[in-house]
């Protein structure tokens, strides 16, 4: 496909949504923020250009005033809790986890509470009470205790099912090819993933479609896709880009 035709499947699917009088809700989460960097600056400028809402999953143990000061003027940027230190406690033969069952629950929850308080103090009204587990993994035994910390939603990867005692606001389309090039996935593949997510909502399912980025490791393939996606959709009558605060409130 030519670069223009790459987007035709999405245009066709969104036309179906428009004909049906429906509007797909999109949201953007980007993980692993800690401090101002050139990559973060690029992300902030890209999203600000079309006033696209952005939620940064920030690692509390490693962040501080510098990031808070940089984000203070970003009206469409929110901050979520990204675990505590993004440390892997799983064994070598397991998938990476910080919030697994490898430590006492009280220790894990205590760190999350510390992170919640730190980010809230740093970012004030910009902080949203959403937990983004590092590597999108968390022990189900921890879920009932998350509201006691003040958390209102959990954000992992994949279609939402059920979570014990807490809401879900998931992501579904990850820009990165983690198991291959470790760069951005081909645009044709990402468009196909978006179309599949929209088709899966054909029965009236209103789950927001979450786009997942990792600005610190984006290559030009990832950056150009995100830019083109925003250009394709920001004024489309069948798409509404939403902030995570609005989505968990609804």
TrEMBL record:
<dbReference type="InterPro" id="IPR011330">
    <property type="entry name" value="Glyco_hydro/deAcase_b/a-brl"/>
</dbReference>
<keyword id="KW-0614">Plasmid</keyword>
<protein>
    <submittedName>
        <fullName>Polysaccharide deacetylase</fullName>
    </submittedName>
</protein>
<dbReference type="GO" id="GO:0005975">
    <property type="term" value="P:carbohydrate metabolic process"/>
</dbReference>
<dbReference type="InterPro" id="IPR049591">
    <property type="entry name" value="CE4_u4-like"/>
</dbReference>
């Amino acid at each position: 496909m030519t670069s223009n035709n790459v987007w035709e499947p999405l245009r066709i699917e969104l036309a179906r949504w428009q004909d049906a009088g429906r509007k797909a809700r999109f949201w953007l989460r980007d993980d692993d923020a800690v401090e101002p960097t050139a990559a973060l600056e690029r992300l902030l400028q890209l999203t600000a250009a079309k006033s696209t809402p952005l939620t940064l999953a920030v690692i509390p143990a490693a962040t501080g005033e510098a990031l808070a000061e940089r984000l203070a003027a970003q009206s469409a940027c929110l901050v979520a809790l990204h675990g505590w230190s993004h440390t892997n406690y799983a064994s070598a033969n397991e998938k990476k986890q910080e919030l697994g069952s490898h430590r006492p629950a009280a220790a894990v929850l205590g760190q999350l509470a510390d992170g919640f308080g730190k980010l809230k103090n740093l970012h004030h009204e910009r902080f949203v009470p959403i937990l983004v587990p590092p590597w999108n993994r968390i022990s189900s035994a921890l879920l009932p205790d998350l509201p006691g910390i003040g958390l209102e939603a959990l954000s992992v990867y994949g279609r939402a099912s059920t979570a014990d005692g807490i809401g879900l606001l998931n992501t579904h389309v990850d820009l990165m090819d983690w198991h291959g090039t470790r760069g951005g996935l081909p645009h044709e593949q990402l468009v196909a993933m978006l179309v599949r997510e929209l088709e899966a909502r054909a029965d009236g399912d209103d789950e927001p479609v979450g786009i997942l980025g990792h600005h610190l490791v984006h290559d030009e393939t990832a950056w150009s896709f995100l830019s083109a996606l925003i250009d394709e959709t920001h004024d489309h009558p069948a798409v509404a880009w939403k902030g995570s605060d609005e989505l968990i409130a609804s």
